[in-house]
Design a protein that fits this description.
three-stranded mixed sheet, alpha/beta, 13% strand
Amino acid sequence: MLPRRNAGHVSPVLLVLLGFGFFVATYNFLGLVMHKSATNGTEEVTESDPVVSVKKGVVSPKFHVALTATDGIYNKWQCRVMYYWYKKMKDMPGSDMGGFTRILHSGKPDNLMKEMPTVVVDPLPEGIDKGYVVLNRPWAFVQWLKKAVIEEEYILMAEPDHIFVNPLPNMAVGEVPAAFPFFYINPKEHEKVVRKYYPEEQGPVTNIDPIGNSPVIIKKSTLEAIVPTWMNVSLRMKEDKETDKAFGWVLEMYGYAIASALHGVKHILRKDFMLQPPWDTEIENKFILHYTYGCDYNMKGELTYGKIGEWRFDKRSHTQGPPPRDLPLPPPGVPESVIRLVKSVNEASSNIPNWYKI
């Protein structure tokens, strides 16, 4: 299913050069990824589709929860909330969650090491990320997969601003990973740019799933093959001005999507994987709440997106310290998803010791 050649391994030359801060890694791209294998997987899947139905009544293997993080205060309080809800949901009926690792790519331990399982890895050499911090994510996974002992066969790639709102099952099916489809990841719309990294001989750009690396549940062996390619594609994209301008803050997401396609990997696309308030208004049977957007409302409960509301919750309001305990709940009429978000942060902050000491 996957290439078993150099595409699955980081070149020793690459590791050395990264250590010295050189950028030669990006030029190893072609040697790493130009291996075409048979496509596996499927398109968007619903509960009535055979690939999902096969799993019903079957005990799914556990997956390891892995999130990448920095040692910044803004990142820390989100990690603490995320870990609180992981612990609460982990052993509930319907959950396939196994162990947990915060992959700390700041290069040194921090004061949360005893609070949650953490592996420290190195950041990219200074200047390579050009201020785009998430470019460190694929490099962090490369290092973690090489140094960590991971008992589970599958891995969930998660982020600090994820809250588990229902017990999460293993959505992957055998060799086929599962991912959330993002409406703003559209390879066809950017075909001219995409072709720089996914040439025509690889097939149509529709082979590239509309996803990022998170949330994704994927077999560990599959991820080990993809991550060096994901790193190299992302580094090369950041160096290219046209690509950087076209993809902006989602560049690394395109990097993962293209790297997966270069390895012939298709994902089961699960819209129920995640919800993103304020646009997704109901929890229903979804599993992860992603609070990347600000939530602004007037006191009538009307959304005022793009304008600071009379009531608001935006994680970016808390870059210098954690949000206060007992945040005020939104006014009547605000969607269930926003209410659940605030209640979830409040519950976590009230139960986490030394909430303000990070």
